[in-house]
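Hi,

I'm pasting everything inline rather than attaching a file, because the server keeps stripping attachments. The sequence lines come first, and each chain or strand is labelled.
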Amino acid sequence: NAGVMQNPRHLVRRRGQEARLRCSPMKGHSHVYWYRQLPEEGLKFMVYLQKENIIDESGMPKERFSAEFPKEGPSILRIQQVVRGDSAAYFCASSDRPANNSPLHFGNGTRLTVT
Amino acid sequence: QKEVEQNSGPLSVPEGAIASLNCTYSDRGSQSFFWYRQYSGKSPELIMSIYSNGDKEDGRFTAQLNKASQYVSLLIRDSQPSDSATYLCAPDAFQKLVFGTGTRLLVSP
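And the predicted assembly:
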């Protein structure tokens, strides 16, 4: 049973380019969470999605960031016109129920570097 | 007040000792509490979950929860150098987990 799969593991983008981060949840999991971790800082919640629906996006920056979890295929976190401050590790986690009833299982993360 | 507060450490203990990691949280509505371990450059991995007041033991790990005091702790018995990592406390907050910044634990041989 494969765990949460994220790709790419490392992503380098120049300022102004777009970054697309992908996440395939564990088999049987329909709840997906995205977190961002800056160097030497904690995990910051960004968005919670359940198949085709955004449940909670209270942690998403108002501009340039978007997320989706289509009926078929992985969840995508999209960052448009990246800036140096977007450089961070982005972790995806999944669960079979909302996080208040079930632990989250994390992927290995995508390390985004903006040059 | 931060939603989840942890002492950043580092907490240094000798091999074989008990490591005690503490966490306070602000949301009285939190019902589920999780401890994650994160090695440098790696992703968080689940150590323990606790839902009711009291103690829960799993091998060398014991989680303690006191909802009235909004306090949760993790004890690691017989600490090993391989336990050296950052430990993240994560209570739930309306269908998502909110993480503390973590306590860095160093276990010296």
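Residues 4 and 25 of chain A are 5 Å apart (CA to CA).

If the labels don't parse on your end, tell me and I'll reformat.
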